[in-house]
Design a protein that fits this description.
alpha+beta, five-stranded antiparallel sheet, globular, 2 domains, about 150 residues, 5 strands, about 45% helix
Length: about 150
């Protein structure tokens, strides 16, 4: 197995914030032993979210199992989602802006057992539809839950 250094186009502030969230969660759960320190878990999650690194590549890079990577990523994503505004708060924030940008995108997925709702005829592929509300500078204000691609 060959390894190589890589970079993530994010600020250290993002890494620090996610690391703090993970540390707080670990303290709340108790003194359970973890395979990776909080900062490494945060780095793994940001590499996956920003660069799209696969679970297998992350497992090899951080010397943990694929199951551990999946569990750590789920925990980090859940912590980030808990910090996000709900739609009501996002609409209040958007009302204070000169204008807001509303857009949606289809994120491709592998086929699932019940394929029909996830097939987008417009894009001719399976996926999930995510709606996004952004401020004039393009910063994320709110993102919807992933809806089936046919929505």
């Amino acid at each position: 197995m060959l390894t190589y250094p890589a970079s993530i186009p994010l600020s250290t502030r993002s890494l620090t914030r996610l690391t703090e969230l993970i540390r707080d969660r670990r303290r709340a759960l108790g003194g359970r032993w973890r395979r990776l320190p909080a900062q490494q878990q945060a780095l793994m999650a940001l590499a996956h979210l920003r660069n799209g690194d696969t679970l297998t590549r992350l497992a090899a890079g951080f010397a943990v199992s694929v199951a551990t990577v999946w569990r750590y990523l789920r925990e980090a994503v859940d912590l980030l989602a808990a910090c996000a505004d709900d739609l009501t708060a996002a609409m209040r924030r958007a009302a204070r802006l000169a204008y807001a940008i509303l857009d949606g995108t289809l994120i491709p997925i592998d086929r699932v057992a019940d394929q029909r709702p996830y097939y987008s005829g417009k894009h001719k592929r399976h996926g999930v539809n995510v709606q996004v509300l952004a401020d004039p500078a393009g910063r994320l204000v709110w993102a919807s839950a992933a809806l089936p691609g046919a929505v």
